[in-house]
Amino acid sequence: MTGRRSDAERNYRRILTVAEAEIAELGAAASIERVARTAGLGSATVRRHFPTRQALLEAVFAERAQALQARASELTGESDSRAALLAWLRDFTDYAVSARGFADVLAYEPPAEVDGEADAEAAAASSSCGTTLEAALAPLLSRAQRDGAARPEASCHDLVTAVAGIALATEQHRDPAGQAARLLDLFVEGLSPRG
To answer: Where are the transmembrane segments (predicted)?
Structure first.
């Protein structure tokens, strides 16, 4: 049994390594079949680990989503809540623009709410990277809103969706990072409280 487990773990790691390279080259359009072929495995083996392309993309980007979560935790203690929120949004935007396919992972709907409570089934079906990022962003946004540094109607989902949209919109631009920074600045202006 141990041999099978270590074989499965080796296959999992090989699949992720190949998928990272394929996604870096092709973005979210990387196919499971091509990943399997390049990894020297059958597509059924890949699908046992990752039944959908979305699941494969989530696994590839999970580590970076966790790093962004750690960055948000670092920024939570900053004295200027607006500066902390904007620093995290810039870090998030920089990564979303530089990592092909990441913004596609974030194209999701938030978990459905039933009587103010998130529906567990809908939450499980939602993007784990998106859920991680929203959870990371929540304390930064809440604090900025409490301090009057961000509009009260802005939600974490709004901000994650906006950054994903900026990354997707600038993907083919000759200077994606520069264009994304410009668009984020325009978006942030709209995030600022009125008056």
So the answer is: none
Last residue of a domain, one of 51, 72, 88: 51
Answer yes or no: is pLDDT of 39 > 70. yes
Q: Specify the pTM.
A: 0.80
> Which of the residue ranges 44-48, 73-77, 128-132 would you say has the lowest mean pLDDT?
128-132
Give the residue from 35, 51, 67 where a domain finishes: 51
* CB atoms closer than 10 angstroms to residue 143: 18
